[in-house]
Amino acid sequence: MLIQEINENNFEFERLKGKKELDKKFDLVDDLLKHSSSIEAKRKYGKLMIRDPTSWAYSFLKDEQNERLKLYPFQDKLINDRHRLVFGAASNQIGKTWDADVKIIHHALHVNSATVLVVSRSEKQTINVLDSM
After folding, report:
1. Helix 53-60 vs helix 39-51: crossing angle, to nearest 10
2. First CA to last CA distance, the chain
3. For residue 60, which phi and psi values (nearest 5 degrees)?
4. How many Å apart are CA 51 and CA 125, to the nearest integer?
5. Are 129 and 97 in contact (CB under 8 A)?
6. What's the confidence (pLDDT) of residue 70?
7. Residues 116, 109: Cα–Cα separation, whole Å
């Protein structure tokens, strides 16, 4: 099943639409953190962190500039897909490794008895993924 197709004709529209959706998630996390004294806010925050790897990454991980890690909209779609097998056709240097790192770490921390296997074409690529984590 095709979730989203982005091409040169709809790129800007899809990018802006995805950015709005993602900004809502980030604002929700900021709001829950700001009002974290109430028990209800803590419950919502906890559920969100377990359910949504993008929000979890924004809360706990830092990028290379030591800023909160904000994934791109296409990364959010890939990382939050619940299917067992997910396929994404993408160009070079757009953040696929970051996406995989977040998914791997989130899954390993939040799933009981989780087994994570990192496989790639070469040992060098696998080491690169493990080093970036």
Report:
1. 110
2. 30
3. -115, -20
4. 29
5. yes
6. 92
7. 10
Question: Distance between CA atoms of 39 and 2, rounded to whole angstroms?
Answer: 39
User: Tokens representing 118?
Assistant: 């990192």
Residue with the bigger pLDDT between 45 and 54: it is: 54
**Could you tell me the pLDDT band of residue 63, with boundaries at 50, 70 and 90?**
confident
* Whole-angstrom distance, CA of residue 116 vs CA of residue 20: 32
Structure tokens that stand for 61 in this block: 């991980």
Q: From residue 79, how far is each of 36, 46, 88 by CA, in Å?
A: 26, 18, 10
pLDDT tens column, 78-95: 898 888 788 777 778 788
Nearest to 75 by CA among 100, 93, 109, 92: 100
Question: Which two structure tokens, joined as six digits, stand for 70?
Answer: 């904000």
**Phi first, then psi: what are they for 118, rounded to 5°?**
-105, 115
Determine the Cα–Cα distance for residues 112 and 128; give it in Å rounded to an integer: 26
Neighbours of 71 (CB within 10 A): 25
Which two three-digit tokens encode residue 21?
Answer: 């959706």
